[in-house]
Design goal:
The structure is a single chain. The strands form 5 sheets. Strands 1, 3, 18, 19, 20, 21 and 22 form a 7-stranded antiparallel beta sheet that branches. This protein has 5 helices and 23 strands. It has 377 residues and is of the alpha+beta class. Among the domains are: 84 residues, Beta Barrel (conserved putative lor/sdh protein from methanococcus maripaludis s2 fold), CATH 2.40.420; 89 residues, Efflux pump adaptor protein, beta barrel domain (Elongation Factor Tu (Ef-tu), domain 3, Beta Barrel), CATH 2.40.30.170; 72 residues, Helix Hairpins. Helix 3 runs antiparallel to helix 4.
C-alpha cells in the first residue's frame, strides 16, 4: 500500500476545510443575520385624561340658547348739534356786564350780558330823524288836503304830498325795527344792549369776557346746548362695521354710573373712517335724565337684529388657563378630552355662553378647575 507523505496529507486537509466553509457561505440566511426592525412607540395625547372611575365625575350637558350677537365698544357723550343754539349779537360794542358763565344752566329769556354800543346810538339817531320827517310829511299832507278842498292846488300836488307821508311812515317803521333787532326798545332810548338767552339749556361755549370788545356777526359770545337729549358717539373698528346697522338697539352705561343702563338706537353710521385708528363713528340719540354730562365716557353694547344659536354651560365648566378657555368633554370610551373653546357673554344663574368649541348636547365636567387639580395630583 502506497503511503502519502505528511505534507501531502496536510494539503489535502486544508483543501477539504476550504470546501466545507465555501458550502456554508452559499446556504446562509441574510434575514436571520440582519438586526431586528425598530418599533415606534406613539406618545399618548396630552389632552386626553383617563381616570379609574369616570362615573364618579359630575357631568353636565351643554344646552342651546337663542340670542342676538353682542358687541361692546366705548364712546363719549356729546351735545346734539341740532340743539346747539348760538347767542348772536347784531350790535358791536364793549361788554360792560356778564350775567352767565360757561357751564351755567340758563332759561329762555334770561339776561346773559350787556353791551354798550355805538351802533345803537346811531340807530336811535336814525329813528328820531325818521320820526321827525314823518311828522313833517304828515303835516304837509294835511295842509295839501285842505288846500285841495278849497281848490288852491291840483290833485297831482295832493298825491305827491300823500306819497311823501307814506314813505316817511315806512322810514319810521324801518328804523324802529332796526332798534328792536339790535336788542333795544325804540320807546326807551338807551345805548346799552341787553342780550338774552334764546333757549333754555346749558352754556357749552363762551368766547367773551368782561370789558372785551364784541363785534357784530363776529364770534358768538355764547353757545347754549339743549341737553335734554344728547348724542352718544362710539368708535367701531372697520372689521366690526358689518355687525352694526341703523336701527339696532344698544345698551349704554356711563362709566360714572355703571349700575344705571340707558337705551339707545343707532341713527347714523359715519361714512368716513379715521385713517389712523381705522374706526367709524356710530351715533345714538339718548334721552338725558339729567346725569349725562358732555364728555362723559360710556360703554355701549350693540345687539344684532338676527337670532343666533349659542352653546351654554355652567361657568364652572370652563377652565381659564394661559389666556385660553378649556372644557373637559367625555368621549364614548369614557375618557376625558380637554377641548379649547371660545367663551362668550356671562349669563344669569352662573352660566357661560360658548361661541365655539363644543355643540349643544356635549357632556362636559361640571367643575373643570377641580377636575384639573385632581388630575395633576
Amino acid at each position: 500500500m502506497r503511503k502519502f507523505p505528511f505534507w501531502n496529507w496536510l494539503a489535502a486537509l486544508v483543501a477539504l476545510s476550504g470546501a466545507v466553509m465555501g458550502c456554508g457561505q452559499g446556504n446562509a440566511n441574510p434575514k436571520a443575520e440582519a438586526p431586528p426592525a425598530a418599533q415606534v412607540e406613539h406618545e399618548q395625547d396630552g389632552s386626553v385624561v383617563q381616570v379609574d372611575h369616570p362615573e364618579q365625575i359630575p357631568l353636565v350637558t351643554a344646552v342651546a340658547r337663542e340670542s342676538r350677537p353682542e358687541m361692546v365698544v366705548t364712546g363719549v357723550v356729546t351735545p346734539d348739534i341740532s340743539r346747539n343754539v348760538p347767542v348772536v349779537s347784531l350790535a358791536s360794542g364793549r361788554v360792560i356786564e356778564i350775567r352767565a358763565r360757561l357751564g351755567d344752566a340758563v332759561q329762555k329769556g334770561q339776561l346773559l350780558l350787556s353791551v354798550r354800543s355805538a351802533d345803537v346810538s346811531g340807530a336811535y339817531s336814525d329813528y328820531h330823524k325818521a320820526v321827525a320827517d314823518e311828522e313833517l310829511a304828515r303835516t304837509q299832507f294835511e295842509r295839501a288836503n285842505d288846500l285841495k278842498t278849497h281848490g288852491a292846488i291840483s290833485l297831482n300836488d295832493l298825491q305827491v304830498a300823500h306819497d311823501a307821508e307814506e314813505k316817511a311812515k315806512v322810514d319810521v317803521e324801518t328804523a324802529a325795527e332796526h332798534l328792536r333787532l339790535l336788542g333795544t326798545d325804540p320807546d326807551k332810548p338807551n345805548s346799552v344792549v341787553e342780550i338774552h338767552a334764546p333757549i333754555s339749556g346749558v352754556i357749552t361755549d363762551q368766547q367773551i369776557t368782561d370789558g372785551a370788545s364784541l363785534q357784530a356777526y363776529g364770534p358768538n359770545p355764547f353757545t347754549i346746548s339743549d341737553l335734554s337729549t344728547v348724542w352718544v358717539v362710539c368708535d367701531v373698528h372697520e372689521d366690526q362695521l358689518a355687525s352694526v346697522r341703523v336701527g339696532d338697539a344698544a345698551e349704554i352705561r356711563l362709566n360714572a354710573y355703571p349700575d344705571r343702563p340707558f337705551k339707545g338706537t343707532i341713527n347714523n353710521i359715519g361714512a368716513i373712517l379715521d385713517p389712523n385708528l381705522r374706526t367709524a363713528k356710530v351715533r345714538m340719540e339718548v334721552r338725558n335724565p339729567g346725569i349725562m354730562r358732555v364728555g362723559m365716557f360710556v360703554t355701549a353694547t350693540f345687539r344684532g337684529q338676527k337670532q343666533v344659536t349659542h352653546t351654554v354651560v355652567p361657568a364652572t365648566a370652563i377652565l381659564h388657563l394661559h389666556d385660553t378657555d378649556w372644557v373637559f368633554a367625555i368621549n364614548p370610551d369614557k375618557k376625558f378630552q380637554r377641548k379649547e373653546v371660545v367663551a362668550g357673554a356671562s349669563l344669569p344663574g352662573d352660566l357661560q355662553e360658548v361661541v365655539s368649541g363644543i355643540s349643544p348636547g356635549a357632556q362636559v365636567v361640571r367643575n373643570a378647575l377641580t377636575f384639573q387639580n385632581t388630575v395633576d395630583q
